Amino acid sequence: MDRLAIEGGKPVRNKLLPYGHQWIGEADVQAVIEVLRSDWLTTGPKVGGFERAFADFVGAKEAVAVSNGTAALHAAMYAADIGPGDEVIVPPMTFASSANCIVFQGGTPVFVDVDPDTLLLDPALVEAKITPRTKAIIAVDYAGQPCDYDALRAIANRHGLTLVADACHALGGSYKGRPVGSLADLSAFSFHPVKPITTGEGGMITTDDPGLAQRMRVFRNHGITTDHRQREQQGSWFYEMVDLGYNYRLTDFQCALGLSQLRKLPEWVKRRQEIAQRYNTAFAEIPAVRPLGVRADVSHAYHLYVVRLDLAKLRTTRAEMFAALRAEGIGVNVHYIPVHLHPFYRERFGTGPGLCPAAETAYEQLITLPIFPAMTDKDVSDVLIAVSKVMSACCSQ
Ligand SMILES: Cc1ncc(COP(=O)(O)O)c(C=O)c1O
Predict the structure, then answer these.
(1) How far does residue 85's CA lie from ligand 1's centre (Å)?
(2) Nearest CA to ligand 1 atom 14
(3) Is residue 285 helix, strand or coil?
(4) Distance CA 89, CA 74 (A)
(5) Sign for the pseudo-dihedral over CA of 253, 255, 257, 260
(6) What percent of the residues of the chain are helix, what percent strand, and what percent coil, each to the nearest 5?
(7) Closest atom, ligand 1, to C-alpha of 335
(8) Exposure winner among 54, 172, 174, 397, fewest CB in 10 A?
(9) Strand, helix or coil for residue 273
């Protein structure tokens, strides 16, 4: 396959098309500049403004802004009162943070396998892993598709568990007409540049419970009950640290960027869905390239577009496909190495191959193709041309 770029002459693209990319417009730049010229760079009015707009957007009562998606998950684990001895159920087909947040609080992640078609946490497998120590379930809306929240809610209610959504991929998606962010007790979001909207780094937790929101506001501010601006307004120097917290604050200029980005999100999700539809139509003709299953009751936010390769049919390896597509200028990626296979988890928790067979099998076959709202129709065509060029090279070997 390495012969491809040489024998095939020119690659489809000279400059790599990334798998995901931010889209920053002039309004975003102006929004940030305005805050940079104001008195409040952090703990100022834009934080509450972004939180309110975000909560309204997802139909939640409260939103708490934090410095990144990992901090959002950590705050959610803190709000759920996870501590040493507690077990939390989490799928392995995700970024490490989804499980790391449990360990930050001294808890134990219990990996439960995914549905082989959607790669979302399989509710049918959850109940068997619940023990008297189980305290929460983290559902990961992998690639942007919301999990089966009715099924997970029923399990959580039956066992008195907190239901947490790792919705870092799924902002703008919905389940049975209900927006992501309103489906779990606590929902965590990321605003990393490849995510649905960006603040550079950033995160948010949504909840309908004002008590949990208040707990997380203290947690993101060192465990201190008032912030700098509140003390200034009160004309007081006094503060109390009531618990061990972190500096997980999001700045005002980041919140201004988030507010500006949020206005564009509905259009961006539509564009992602359009691109996914073009891919789906093209791959319907190619049995060796299988898009992941999408349930009929969701609106998929398509943070990622992931396909499974039938490597036997293609007579190649995933590594060769990956290298050949990269050589064609297509910035493919792999999401994810199942978390329970990482050395840290193997060593600390004794996890390893065989624990979650559906995720492990899928991992060997997955490849992520570029999808982001600023992609042009020509960009999408380039991806499809590159895939068919690479495939015909494999099949003619
Ligand atoms: C599913 C998932 N959870 C959590 C995170 C962590 O978000 P952040 O990078 O903002 O800390 C990511 C980001 O990569 C993610 O993809």
Answers:
(1) 25
(2) 95
(3) coil
(4) 15
(5) negative
(6) 45, 15, 40
(7) 16
(8) 397
(9) helix
Q: How many residues in total does the chain contain?
A: 397
d(CA 124, CA 198): 34
DSSP 115: P
Tens-level pLDDT at each residue, the chain (397 residues): 334 444 557 999 999 999 999 999 999 999 999 999 999 999 999 999 999 999 999 999 999 999 999 999 999 999 999 999 999 999 999 999 999 999 999 999 999 999 999 999 999 999 999 999 999 999 999 999 999 999 999 999 999 999 999 999 999 999 999 999 999 999 999 999 999 999 999 999 999 999 999 999 999 999 998 887 887 888 888 999 999 999 999 999 999 999 999 999 999 999 999 999 999 999 999 999 999 999 999 999 999 999 999 998 888 999 999 999 999 999 999 999 999 999 999 999 999 999 999 999 999 999 999 999 999 999 999 999 999 999 888 766 5
Give dist(CA 154, CA 219) in Å, integer: 29
Interval 86-107: pLDDT, tens:
999 999 999 999 999 999 999 9
393: phi then psi, degrees, rounded to nearest 5: -65, -40
CA–CA dist 219, 186 (Å, integer): 15
Atom of ligand 1 minimally distant from the CA of 303: 16
How many Cα atoms occupy the beta-carbon half-sphere of 275 within 13 Å?
30
CA distance 13 to 200: 27
Name the residue among 327, 316, 342 with its Cα closest to residue 9.
327
Supply 108's token pair. 């134990």
- Residue 367 has φ and ψ, to the nearest 5°, of -150, 140
Task: Determine which residue's CA is closest to atom 10 belonging to ligand 1.
Answer: 69
What is the pLDDT, as a whole number, of residue 3?
41
Q: Return d(Cα 72, Cα 205) in angstroms, integer.
A: 6
pLDDT of residue 397: 55
